[in-house]
Amino acid sequence: EAVERIALNALPACIREDGIVGFQYVNTVSAEVGESNCFRQEADHDARALIRLARGCAAIVSGAVMACENGLTVNLYLPGKYAVLVGDSLMIVTITQQNSAYSIQVHCKQESRALVQLRVPSWAKHAEITVNGMESDAGTDCRDGMLKIDRVWHDGDVITVTLEKSLRVLDGHHQGKYVMQGPVLMEMECKPGTPWA
Hints:
Distance between the termini: 27 Å
Radius of gyration: 21 Å
Number of helices: 2
Strand content: 35-45%
Shape: globular
Structural class: alpha+beta
Strand order of the largest sheet: 5-6-7-13-9-10
Order of helices and strands: HEEHEEEEEEEEEEEEEE
Low-confidence stretches: none
Helix content: 10-25%
Number of strands: 16
């Protein structure tokens, strides 16, 4: 879940048009660059941050959909196309998103039996799974945050995962609070001159 937070919150924040923020506020009601309560980043911070960002993106994507014994596991619902070797067959998995629903389309040259494990995040109050538009019984076997579908897959089969994205207020650093909707950190715009706290 920490990787999911990084992928959906930290990475987009790092590649905004206004660039990487060069300083960080520290537990105070007001802060200005150069004050003792504000850390300034080193001169090569941007270059080092971009290098780490590139490595992080590669690591996150490589772990989103992985091969497991007798099948594959969807760890992160990141839109994209993933190739997974299942037994002797190659399965191509395409993930797309529309609001709270994730569509996982399976492509394979020949039908094959495989176990597909779908991660159910702790933030999801409810998960609904369908296969080719028909309700799946995968919801009855949710152990360790995983829903499991063991069946014969055909080219073009579609799994739809709908996750209820609850709104939560969580404790942050130094008595702070933050609001998340599902895996996404909510933010409020502060206009110039407004105390950021």
